[in-house]
Structure formats: C-alpha cells, structure tokens
Amino acid sequence: MDDLELVEETFDLDREIEDLAKRYRAASNLGVQVLSVLNWPAESLLDRLPENSRSKLETAAVRGLEAAMSAASGTRSFVKDQKSWVNTATTTAVGIVGGMGGLPTALAELPVTVTMLMRSVQAVAAEHGFDPDEEQTRKDALLVFAATGPLTQAGKSADLTFLSSRVTLTGVNVYIGIGLIAPRLALVLGRKLAAQTIPVIGAATAAATNYSYSGYYQEMAQVVFGLRKLEEKTGTRYAELVELLSARLEG
After folding, report:
1. How far apart are CA 213 and CA 107, in angstroms?
2. CB-count exposure of residue 202 (10 Å: 0-12, 13-18, 19+)
3. How confident is the model at residue 42 (pLDDT cuts 50, 70, 90)?
4. Residues 59, 62, 68, 71, CA torsion sign
5. What is the pLDDT of residues 78-121, one digit of tens each?
6. Rounded Cα gap, residues 188 and 184, in angstroms
7. How many C-alpha atoms does 180 have within 13 Å on its Cβ side?
8. Three-class SS of residue 200?
9. How far apart are CA 98 and CA 170, in angstroms?
10. Residue 85 pLDDT
11. Is residue 207 within 8 Å of residue 99, measured between CB atoms?
C-alpha cells in the first residue's frame, strides 16, 4: 500500500508540474499577437519612449508597487476578490482610457493598472489558500512582478530566474524587496508604455496591451503560488520544484 501511495504521489507531482508548465507557456504567448499588430521588435520598444520618461521608470515602478501593495491589500476588506475574467476585463477597460491621450494619459493610468494587477495576483494567492496580508505571501506577490512580462520576443527559452530570486526576497522586508524588483519591472512597464503610445492604433492597442498584461500576471501568479502549494503538500524543496518546471519547459 505504501508503494502504491508513493507512485500516486509521484504521478500527481508530475501532473502538477505539467499543469504549471502549461500556464507558463500560456502566459508567455499572451503578448505575441500584440507584438504582431505593433510590427515593432520587442527589444526596441523602449527606444520609442522619450529619454526623460525612460529615466523615471524605475522610480515610477517603486512608487507604483508600494501604492499597489498598500491599496490592493486595503481594498480586500470591502471589495471581494473577482473572477480572473473580471479582473482582465476591468484592466483592459482602464487600458483603453489610458491609451486615448498618448503618453500623458498612459503615465497617469500606470499606477492604477499596477494596483489592479497586484489585486488580481493577491486573489490567486487567496485561491491557493494563502493569506495575501501575510509577509511571505506579499513577497511572493512581488516575485510575480519580477517576471519578464508579456511583450518579450517569442521563441526565446524559458526565463525562470525570477523564480530563483525568491531566496533573495526571503531575507528582506517587503519594501526592500520592492526596491530589488523595481529595475526589472521598470523595463516591463516601459514596453507597455511604448506599446500604448504608438500612433494610429491608439486605444485599441492600449486595451490589447493591458489584456495581455492582466492575463500574463495572473498566469504567473498561478505558477508562483502553485509551486509554493506543491512545496507545502509534497515537502519537496522549492528550488527542486523550479528545476523540475525548468526541465519540463526545456523538454
């Protein structure tokens, strides 16, 4: 009986890892259509932004995450977590408004979008049975925002370095963690701003961009908190689970 239970546990772990790999692949494909419509290389999107805007992105990322962490957590006491499609639809609508006036309105919309994205990530944490206000959960929510974002070049190998940075976040408080995550998020937000301000396509592109960002971070949250749940359920070290996921993605 013990051997049978062991086989079942191994099989379940393998299946769970495959499910997380599917989510990762789905997230990575979300920006492909946006890039196709833009007809602009992902690596060059930041070049579209004025220099003064690019220089402010990291500061904006820090302030946005701080505000999002506080506001998203605070609203959970009186606004219930929504279904994923509701979060995506709302974030998409905000993107339409942000894209109507070019860079000024896109910049103004940015902290609102980050707050909504954080709220959707917290909803995924709660879905997996974790308290969004608990210190480790807040750090894992930050970890989601260390991912590369949807507007990256399709076809590149899986980048799971953001998952490995969990070890670094474990030894610091949330606000130091925000400072560590901010440089990477700044690049991701820069691509978003650039995509939203490309002429002609305007609000439609802004909506599609926000749609891809919302779906991306919700799927990445499923990966992050799915790994944490597996760590608790199986006793397998987090680093080993990341290696299993990496091997499945490479395969």
Report:
1. 16
2. middle
3. low
4. negative
5. 555 555 545 555 555 554 545 455 566 667 667 777 888 888 89
6. 7
7. 18
8. coil
9. 35
10. 47
11. yes
Both ends of the chain: CA-CA distance in Å?
32
**Block residue for tokens 């650039």:** 194
Token duo for residue 150? 């949807």
The answer to whether 225 and 124 have CB atoms below 8 angstroms apart is yes
How far apart, in whole angstroms, are the C-alpha atoms of residue 196 and residue 216? 17
CA distance 205 to 202: 6
- 66 by Cβ neighbours in 10 Å (0-12 / 13-18 / 19+) ranks as middle
The tens digit of pLDDT for each residue in 198-237 reads 655 556 666 777 788 888 999 999 999 999 999 999 999 9
The answer to whether the CB of 225 falls within 8 A of the CB of 54 is no
Render 91-145 in DSSP notation, one character per residue: HHHHHHHHHTTSHHHHHHHHHHHHHHHHHHHHHHHHHTT--TTSHHHHHHHHHHT
3-class DSSP state of 173: coil
